[in-house]
Each structure stands twice: as C-alpha cells, then as structure tokens.
Amino acid sequence: MAKKKSLSVSVKPYAEAERPVKAVSEAAAVGLSNTLPIMESSYTYNVCLDYVKFRFNGEFDVGNSFFRDLLHILKVKPTMYDETHGNNGYEKKLVFEENVIFQVGGRTTKNRDGEETWLMEMSGSSCRDFDERGGSWIDLLSLCLKNGGICTRIDVAIDDFTGKISVNEIKYRIFHHLYSMPMKSWKKFGTPEVLSEGIENQDKEAEVIDSCNEGFTADFGTKYSKQLSIYNKRAERMSKEYAVFVKSWIRYEGRFFKDSAVSAVNLVLSSLESNTFSSVVSGLIRGLVEFKEVNGYSHLDRSRAPIWKKWEAMLGFVEKITFVNQAKIESSLARKHEWLLEYAGKTLVKAYIANPGAFDKLMAFIFNHAVEKLDNSDISSINKLRRQDKRKDVTLESSQQFIKDNFDKDLDDPYISSVFYRYI
C-alpha cells in the first residue's frame, strides 16, 4: 500500500506566552503491565514513552562497564549489530538488534571542552521493542542520568481510542484560532480535503473518524525547544501496511528537545518512580497547547477563554488514562500478519490459480529476492517467533543461507519475468 503524497502548509498564528500550566491531578496509573483488556471496546486512552535520545561526553568504549551495563538493561545482544555511516557529524552508526542506535566518532561532534561525544537514540519502534522485551524505563533512564547522560530529546504520547474527539474538530479549532500555546508556530500536513477548516461537532457521543481524516498531522512548535504533534495514528499504521483493528486512534505526542528535554526527562523519571506517569504526561501535553471553546475573546486575551470541555475531559480526568505495555497494545490493534492475510494473500491466490505449476518457482524467486534485504532487526523478530515454538535462535548469515539452500532461483522463467508482473 503506497503512502499518499502530502501537502504541507506552514503559517504563524497569533500566539502569546502563557503562564506555566500546572500538571493535572494524579492518575491511578497502573505501571507497566503485560495484561491487556479482553475486548477492543475497553480501550480508552493509553500513555507511553515514544522517543529517547541521550548524549554522553567522553570516548566511546564498548568494553567499559557502563556500556556493558547499558546493553544489559536494554536487553540487546552485544555482538548483534549493523555498522553504517553516521549522520549529524558522527562517523559511525551502530544499530543493535532492536533498532537501538549509537552514533560515535567525528571531528565536529566534540563538546565545548574538546571531549568526544557519542549518542544513544531510541525511536518509537525501538521503544516498543524495549517494552516487548520487558525492559525497565526506570532502570534505563536512571543509568543514563547517573553516568552523565544529557537528554537531548524525549517524547511522551497519549493515544486516544475513544473517538470522542475527531480530527475534524481539531481542524476546526486550528483554523479558527481556538487554542493558546507558549510556542510561536505550527504546521499541518495532509490531503487537500484534510486542509479544509473542519467542523464544530455538537454531538456529545463518540464518533468514528471517517476516511477524509486520514493522513492528518498538526505540529505546534518547533524542534528547537518543544512541540506537540497531533495525528491520525490509525491512518499512519495503515499506510505502513498494518491491518488496524480499532475504528479511531488519534495520537497526541509531546516532544521535548535540548533544555526542555533535560527538564522533561527528570519529570518523567520521577513520575515513573512514584507511579504518576499518566498525570505527568497529561500535564506536559496540556502545557503545550490548550484548545478553547468557541468564544468572543481577541487573540490577545485568548488564554483567558474557557478550555474546550472535550480537551479538559481527556487531560483532566486522568484516571481514565493508563500506562500499560504500549507494544502489546500496538501489536493487538495493528498487525502486519493480518495485512498479509487480507492483502498479500489475495495476490498469492491469484498467482497460484493463474499457473499452479509455476507457483513454487515464483515463491522461490520472491524468497531469494527478499532474503537479501534482511537485517539484524529482522532476525530479532524471527527469533521472537522461534522462541514461542521453543526453537533455537538463528543468525542473519544462517537465515540467508537456509533460503538459498532450499529455494532455487530461476531468473529465466518467462512466467515470473513477464506474465506475473504484468497481470497480477
């Protein structure tokens, strides 16, 4: 499924500095848990960590005790990584088995004292893999901070599965300036339909997000300090060829950079230790943007306008927001295996019926082509499945050789080279 091309619009609305927003009341947070609600209808809200990046001063040394402890807490194998060219001035990028990235070396990456620096970076997918491995965020953040790590980015997110707030209502408040924020700019992305002004929905009941909302993203703020990104997570998952088993899924993602990240990471760690993570995430996001009810205030006094009741309900009633294993939720609500059955399966059936006698050759051709694209992250996923069946782990090299030994590739077969690609 190809990703839709997007149209980008950038404007600078009226925005004024505001008083700091206090965190909302404490949540009945349950901490990390592997237990999920049985029925999809029981999903309401969830909070999670979705990006972590630390910079460390000093020479990178794979043999020192801190780095060994770090890999141990990350639960990755020290010998399983891919080495590529670095970016942002770093010479090397080491990508460990679950997409945990270390960037090292470089002449322009030294700190003010002339010391070398190195980075540890965990994207959203890497954070979900860490959840899946049963990693402890308290242990990881504590170890990084105790060893002089400087947090340069941390993201927290609320996933809303209720449908009580629609993308159309978010669009309406953006276009009619019914919000206040400490940041000075915003951007939004999407199809031409998404760039319309939206509607004010008076219905108090939950509604399903329809297809015209797909692809919507609104970013408030910049990557120099702090930012709130609101987007249709359901559409984003589907664009990456996942089958999604929930009708509504909007993500509110608070991103904190540089000095803001230093402050945010300490709040996050403290909240994890005191089991108040949900309420702190709500407070952090509320401090980025407050949506307002329709009002007659001028842009200079907009911060005094009443807060939108639906926004207040989501961020204020924090007892409805839980902190459970995000990887379990995402694997339950968005699965690539289901996409394989629903979409790729139909194509394979057509290929088989078209020429049953050549189907084995076709599969061999596909397998030989795809196996060269495997990396250590894929091997980690394979080994997860093998462990469920009590099988031994495999390596990248042994997996590639296994396919080559068992599936002969016939590049000259006319069915594969012309008929299949032309008609299926």
Plain-language structure description:
- By secondary structure, the chain is an alpha+beta fold.
- The protein has 14 helices and 16 strands.
- 36% of the residues lie in helices and 20% in strands.
- The model is unreliable at 1-41, 188-195, 202-213 and 318-324 (pLDDT under 50).
- The two termini are 15 Å apart.
- A hairpin with a 6-residue loop joins strand 3 and strand 4 (92-96).
- Helix 6 (258-274) runs antiparallel to helix 7 (277-286).
- Strands 1, 2, 3, 4, 5, 6, 7, 9, 10, 11, 13 and 15 form a 12-stranded mixed beta sheet that branches. Strands 8-14 form a two-stranded antiparallel ribbon.
> Biggest β-sheet, characterized?
12 strands, mixed
Radius of gyration: 24 Å
- How many helix segments? 14
Order of helices and strands: EEHEEEEHHEHEEEEHEEHHEHEHEHHHHH
Low-confidence stretches: 1-41, 188-195, 202-213, 318-324
Oligomer: single chain
Mean residue pLDDT = 76
Overall shape: it is globular
Query: What structural class should be given to the helix and strand makeup?
Result: alpha+beta
Strand content: 15-25%
Number of strands: 16
Distance between the termini: 15 Å
| Proportion in helices | 25-40%
